[in-house]
Amino acid sequence: MPQTADEMDAVAVRTWCSLALEALGRERAAIDAINVYPVADGDTGTNLYLTVESAAGAVEAVFAGHETGASVPALADAVRAMAHGALIGARGNSGTILAQLLRGMAGVLADGHDADHLRLALTRAATAARQAVAHPVEGTVLTVATAAAEAAGRTAGDPSAQAVVQAAYEGARTALDETPGQLAVLGRAGVVDAGGRGLVTVLEALVEAVSGETPEHGVWVAPDIASVTTAAAEDCAAGGPQDGPAFEVIYLLEAGDEAVDRLRTRLDGLGDSLVVVGGDGLWNVHVHVDDAGAAVEAGVEAGRPYRIRITHFGADRVHLPHSEPSQRGVVVVVPGPGLSGLCSEAGATTVLARPGEPPASGELVDAIRRAHAREVVLLPNDAELRHTAAAAAEQARAEGIRVALIPTRAAVQGIAALAVHEPDRSFDEDVVAMTAAAGATRYGELAVAERQSWTMAGICQAGDILGLIEGDVAVIGEDVPGTARAVIDRMLAAGGELVTLVLGEDVPDALADALEEHVREGYLAVDTVVYRGGGQGTPLLIGVE
């Protein structure tokens, strides 16, 4: 049971983030399943999870950086970290709105932690979220947030923080149950608003963080997925939400307030579902448009956009050729264009993961459709994509595609799995063989330390070369060649028959030649294969089978 606080302090914020992340992880698939507005792309639960994951990570970083073990960080530091983490990690329409809700709360809680500040924080959050949305619609997460704030306001005079958050939760839950009667597409599908459902989950976690007790509520049952799909199809035929813009565009933007005001006006003319959140020079921009390039260009004119993510909604509205789909396909997430070409030559459909821009579930679903196969093996090649990939697989299955998700955690594991792929054998046998090949591949990589920090291998300084094995720092070195040799030696100490090296951008071929010679001289029975095409900022990926 979490610590009882009955007030907001840094520990309560940390607990809140942890509980919310855990709860959204449990309910992600159910929330994805009821996502019919504004676009039925089935990723609201996943987007909310990833947004809170970023917020929780930022709060954990504050605690990790707090050197004095006898005390904890200040509340102001924790809530600001939470808001900033949510802002930079916000995904989708619902995640972007949640980020603004957390930012609104943080602005008040940074100044106080009692019940009065909590009431004001919830009110400020709801107001800020509405102001961030170009055209607010009732029956959405905005309605649920407003109801939560109003219910909390009715506890005025009660000094108990627990009473405030309990009232907010109950108000939000009541408002959520009413959303099908406020938004026609929800009523036709027989579902509540997905974003609102996610917010209720987050508020339930807040109640538990403050009181130490889980609120009592009835069992919520997810609807039959067929009814949701039918409602979405009817809306598309009637020119409803599904007949809207083809692309979702999201980016972080460094810009001033005046430039962002002009950007809002321009983007509002280009598309819909416009949400711009943030402040103090950093913004998260979300919009649905037909001309994705114009939306990005508008950001360039306003300031410096980065972490640009573009998701194609139109794939499910475009009629595929009437040719029979192939029996089996493979979808692979790759860190660089070089590996994309390699995997494409092997017959796979690829999704490029750029630095700081992991693919959204919509991109993975689009790739699964592009594979044009009855059966698809999905290789995410990144542990952080596990929930995103799972959401994409579930949506594709709902469309009648048989999808097997192999939880590969690195590109070299994906290469190993793809190498043993045989489309002529049974699907189950193929998946077992690919899974075994991936599981038998240990993975490592080199990275450059961005700042001084403590690692499993000791304290590193900014600029040090880090050698990671299975995600943990095992070697701290001064240069790439020496660190690479040390990592390879560590990995081969446990045995191996094949070393796979994937060179990053701008890494000279001479490094591969030197490492091949090192393996040849030290390990006579071990072969080496080299590919070029690793991700930007990662000098070397290493696999040992």
Largest sheet: 6 strands, mixed
What share of the residues lie within helices? 40-55%
C-alpha-based Rg, rounded: 24 Å
Unreliable stretches covering 5 or more consecutive residues = 1-5, 221-233, 236-242, 315-323
Any overview of this molecule?
The chain is of the alpha/beta class. 50% of the residues lie in helices and 18% in strands. It has 19 helices and 16 strands. The chain has helices spanning 10-33, 44-64, 75-89, 92-109, 115-132, 141-153, 161-178, 184-189, 194-211, 225-237, 257-270, 292-302, 337-345, 361-370, 386-398, 411-419, 427-439, 480-492, 509-522, and strands spanning 247-254, 271-279, 282-289, 304-312, 326-334, 349-352, 373-379, 402-405, 442-448, 453-455, 458-460, 465-469, 472-477, 498-503, 527-532, 540-544. It has a six-stranded mixed sheet with strand order 13-12-9-16-14-15, sandwiched between helices. Strands 2-3-1-4 form a four-stranded antiparallel sheet, with helices on both faces. Strands 6-5-7-8 form a four-stranded parallel sheet, sandwiched between helices. Helix 7 packs antiparallel against helix 9 (194-211). The longest helix has 24 residues, at 10-33. It is globular and about 80 Å long. Residues 1-5, 221-233, 236-242 and 315-323 have low confidence and may be disordered.
Give a short overview.
The chain is α/β, with parallel strands linked by helices and about 550 residues long.
Note the main attributes of this structure.
545 residues; alpha/beta; 6-stranded mixed β-sheet; 4-stranded antiparallel β-sheet; 19 helices; 16 strands; 50% helix
